[in-house]
Amino acid sequence: MAIVRSIEFAAGERADVLLTPEGSLSGYSPHFDRDAVLRALDTVTGAARDAGVALALGTCFVKADDGRCYNQVRFYDKDGAHLGFHSKTLTCGTLTDPPRGEVNDFAVAPLRTFDLCMTCVGALICNDLWANPGCTPQDDPHLTQQLSRMGARVIFHAVNGGRGGGPGSELAWQYHESNLRMRAMAGRLWIVTVDSCHPATLPCSAPSGIIDPLGEWIVRAPEQGEAFFVGEVAV
Fold first, then answer.
1. At what angle do helices 2-12 and 34-51 cross, to 10 degrees?
2. What is the per-residue pLDDT for 165?
3. Which residue stretches of 107-232 are H helix?
4. What is the value of pTM for the model shown?
5. With 0-12 CB in 10 A as exposed, 13-18 as middle and 19+ as buried, what is 217?
6. I need a labelling partner for 114 at 20 to 30 A (CA). Which of 32, 77, 144, 235 fits?
């Protein structure tokens, strides 16, 4: 499992936190094997606990208390304790009335921050950050700015974007990168961002790496293929 290999890499590099892409545990879909995801979650969180690595884990998940499906980044501390989750808020859908797409599939929970490794952090998922006007019927809530005002110093951004190199893909890449850099600078935030690399025969939909509060890349991953990276975030 790629997530377990990434935990081993993080432990070897003495990293504090591992971020995985959107839907990396479950697959990016509301239609998944719930029991299989729970078993995989036990495996991954156990491996991270044993390695002393905190997690910002991207997965779709059905909450037992309300039976609703959420597209989540789930936070676990180094001891394996579950701290809570961010749910994708600016869900994607068509601009029709009524809209079609994941806007109808995933529930949303209130925006919040987390105390992780003695730092106030937040999470966003894919379109939560860049608010692509062609991908959502909702207005831009500027979630990066909201998290900054709530005290977050680091945002973990999990992505699983549309791919294939079709018309507009180069423009979308530029839009994604400029939004990452501008929003980091505007909120005086560190942003750690990772996109899905599957299938490895296609380039990613957005850049992966770490951006500092001046909007500059301090680490940047290749644009195609599986890659693990580590960098120091000074907060």
1. 10
2. 67
3. 127-130, 143-149, 169-187
4. 0.97
5. middle
6. 32
